[in-house]
């Protein structure tokens, strides 16, 4: 007969074993590669680590799976923002994270448990006491590991916190003189502190700083630095970039992913008495107020009623529809300008943070280069939804352009007002049509995803036009001095209109409208600005072609 | 301010000016030859960009100040007139050229002056230029009329001949000086266009020079 204590002990050991068994069973169901943080322990000590929260609990963590398609009602060409963000982080997760002490302990414990299972399997059957002692020692070891890990983690965290505070103080000192603190400045301070922290852990920024110090005038070093910076996903500048990109994508997505017709569904369904099937149908447009449950439509409603008061009954249906369309247009335009502003702010924020972390960039030339490199990273994932919004806003203009293209696709240069000496009388078949090289170049604009590159493309197009014009005119007047062949705007614009028409790409209208928003002030009065302005003029002219004289009328009122 | 110190005012040291000048005039008044003359004149090297005569830049040194001139040619044809405003905006100066043998071209100049005033108010230095004075015998626009008109719109009047290379250098030099004075009086030139990337405490000055910038962007 065993003493009571021994019996108790055995029962406890059995219970422990049961737990381990059930636990081991659950472990097997999961894919083997998955790291589990599950540990034999009742203390659910939740510890915030710098990388997130690692929960220590008895149950295996339930991995909730994100539902990727949300409803799937409209097939949209754009990815939902969640996926956009996932793609962003997927790119950056290639780098290995360092394990926190608790994570390390959990790995260690897994190994211990594996060993334990092996030993348990080797035990000859019937050796219950052996089993119990093994189980108990496993429990003890695992527990110890955890406690030590927790202590280490706490110490580390305390240290990190101290360091963070110290760096924050340092950051604050740097900004100290600037008096009142706006929220943006506050954010910048925090960012700066995180940069200091990053730089204590990484050496590459120091190397670059030294390199730039050595060659302060080498601009290629600047782009080298920025691209190296962008390749480090843990750097605060890159984190900020991703965050801002996501924020803008998130704003763009609902605007461009829905079907193109109506932006105000509640207006078109419940406000218009002709479409309203549930209420107020017989009462006519002037009487009762249709019930509205959307809060922001109240103002719209007021305006809507005012509209009817002002213009009673002159085909109310048409007016209403055009009114609704106007409202949509306005709303879209407002969204667009808001987003444009957000993008400018985002780039401002990024470049200031860049300049903060690399003071060596603080010369006019280096700064420009830095902003250019940042934009090159910032814009590409956003350009197509952004352009989609611009295209929505400029839909009318694009339609005009399209109509003109249909009507004047085969127009000769002279029909568009190009001087006869500036295009060949007969083009040999194998050489294509006049100014073809410029047309080909201009079409490439849609392939670029960054404003600066698009501008470069426009500049190249105009240069090609000038080169072609020179060639054509020298063919016709071989004796004329080259200088007289130089063409001015009088010749350039008709040719450019001809070229733009032949690209047959209405989206040029929206591309240019977008470029106008994102061209740098510094370039505005330079060659890029001139070329963009000229192209915009040419496009407007092409748009007006099909109506045969909108421009003439306008200029008539102007004279 | 430490933050702005990091953002820094670019350029530093000697301030330089950048001016935008639009060139207006009917098709055959000779505005292209005028700027070509000017830009090939002083130095031997060509200042003609690869955009030939439509967009030209010139660097000058006036009173120890560096001046970058960007000269924007515009199309004179009637059908492109409606598109003018996007060329004018942010201009510091305008050169309006007419042919002294062509009364009609002078009337056109008057239209452009109206248009410019409407858009930019008095924030632009206007030059009215009677070109082709080598054809004095065929003059159709009287000197008095032209000068009186110029004075009435606070523009300066010049006579030039692109053919004989007369009066052109003076015209541009004078215009540059006027633009510099104007910039100093108003404290706002495009001398140092404040880049968006820089966060300077005193933000954009409520200057009128950039008035055209925002308001007609969506059009």
Automatic annotation (TrEMBL), chain A:
Gene3D superfamilies associated with the record: VPS9 domain
SMART domains for this protein:
VPS9
A single GO CC term for this protein reads: cytosol
**Any one GO molecular-function label of the UniProt entry:** small GTPase binding
Q: Where is this region: Disordered?
A: 34-63
Matching entries from SUPFAM superfamilies are given as:
VPS9 domain
Q: Name one GO biological process term.
A: vesicle-mediated transport
Report the Pfam families cross-referenced here: VPS9
Q: Where along the chain is composition biased (Low complexity)?
A: 36-57
The VPS9 domain extends over 395-551
Question: What PANTHER family does the entry give?
Answer: RAB GDP/GTP EXCHANGE FACTOR, VPS9 DOMAIN-CONTAINING PROTEIN 1
Q: What is this protein called?
A: VPS9 domain containing 1
User: Gene symbol?
Assistant: VPS9D1
TrEMBL record, chain B:
Membrane association type = Lipid-anchor
GO CC list: cleavage furrow; endoplasmic reticulum membrane
Question: Keywords, A to Z?
Answer: GTP-binding, Lipoprotein, Membrane, Nucleotide-binding, Prenylation, Protein transport, Transport
Might you name a Gene Ontology BP term for this protein?
Rab protein signal transduction
Q: Which SMART domains does this one have?
A: RAB, RAN, RAS, RHO
Which PROSITE patterns does its entry note? RAB, RAS, RHO
Annotated localization: Cleavage furrow; Endoplasmic reticulum membrane
- Spell out the molecular function terms from Gene Ontology: GTP binding; GTPase activity
Region annotated Disordered, chain positions? 185-219
SUPFAM superfamilies (UniProt xref): P-loop containing nucleoside triphosphate hydrolases
Record-stated family? Belongs to the small GTPase superfamily. Rab family.
What is the protein named? Ras-related protein Rab-21
* Native source organism of the sequence: Scleropages formosus (Asian bonytongue)
UniProt gene name: LOC108942190
